[in-house]
Amino acid sequence: MRAIVKNSRDEAFKLLDIAVRQYPEDASFHMYRGEVLQRESHFNQALSSFAVALKLDPTNARTLASIGGALYMMKRNSEAKEFFQAANLLDPTLVIAASNLVHTSLTESDWGFYSNIDQMIKVLASDPVEGSPFNLLALVDDAALQKKRLAERDRLVRKTVVANKHFKRKKVKERRIRLGYFSCDFFDHATMFLLGQAFARHDRDRFEVFVYDYGPDKGCAEQQLVRKAADTYRQVNKLSDEGLAKLARDDGIDIAIDLKGHTNGNRLPVFAFRAAPVQVSYLGFPGTTGMKDMDYFVADPVSIPTDQRQHFSEKILYMPDSYQINDNTRPHPETVPTRAELGLPEEAFVFCSLNNPNKVTPAEFDVWMQLLHEVPDSVFWLLAPDQNLRDNLLKEAQVRGIGPDRIVFAGRVSPSQHLARLPQADLFLDAFNCNAHTTASEALWSGVPLVTKMGKQFAARVAASVLTAVGCQDLITETVEDYHDLALKLAQDRAAFDAIRARLKDNITTTPLYDTETFVKNFEDLMEKAIQRYDAGLKPKHISLG
Fold this sequence. Notes:
The chain is an alpha/beta fold. Helices cover 46% and strands 11% of the residues.
């Protein structure tokens, strides 16, 4: 039945409708029907099928997890978490339940599962297929574990995919190189805030830009920007993975650039089918894809030092500065809301973490609350868009001896409003295992210093990369103790704080992090080296410039 669902959804609907009529007491048919409906985003109908299955088999953990999955997709996080908890209690070894319980719990800063964290990590490590790879990043700084899981997942995918090895194309020696960008995030998404201007800035004497957008047609300004900037823009959300790979090959793409990795909505099987002779993972997922057919991963010497290459299935394309592109045309806000308008005390020292809540763990929170004890005239400004999250954070603060008057919550706002409010923070404190990414460079762009603890895996080294590129390496620490001590010093030593803030302001226009033009030129040079290597009949290798 699983094969039928996979190979032909329309046929599956017909067969499953027949099956549930003929065998109404068989819970598995109702489950399969619900899974197909959920894949097609018919969530209410999927819930109805799952409910019938649960009534027929009340102790089936997978059914409970499936109900949780549908509720989560409907943005009913708290209800979803309850079903994942129930599934996890029934079957602690069920990876899909454990993975989603971790994610929905972290999203609400509900850290109850940390009492069993070691066992939870063992469960997540046990199955390479089920569970989101992203959910493991915040829990543990372990690039080797990530690669092991993802490489095994790729091995299973390749059993059902025949990768194309033949491309009808001429060598690029005397023609433009065709770059193909693949994503569903060509809208007001973090990827576009970083990458948006790059499409227009490619050297059209050397490169031809194709965009394969498999997201919905939103008609927003960011999507229109990409449409206008691309030489060829294709809306491909109705194509199968194999069909999309074939279209790219027919277009003669030389280098296929995946902007998603293992993030929600990815189409990684496209690259298993081979969309281009050279395939590159960039920007979307902070870690290896684990894919044999993904040739390169774009990084820099800070985010992937030589001793960490072993944890990537790809060869590394080394940008000379940070791997992270930034758009230096993003305007600084003309009007900044007052602290009073943001709920911040006028004279307080404002620590902040405007990371997504699912990156924050008790390890960081312990340090942050300790700092509030040590800096009495301070508050902590946290991104917390819903009430359950706020209630949990206040509860955790109270356990650590901090009252609600010391915590200020920020809601989700538009990108322009976010940039406008950021300057009212004094010091951004980073998450450990999964750093701030776009949020980090936005804070620095707004003149807010950021303290990070550099870890081992790529996700734990991103902030160190951007701080190095903006000439503020002294804000990088390597231990929890040093992270705490540096944050405390900057909060208590006004001269030291003013000096780092002034240096950051000066460095915005003089260091590489926001030099979009130079970044694009260096990126193009790496792409050129990669395709020339292919045309010379050579296998991928680690490539640097100069």
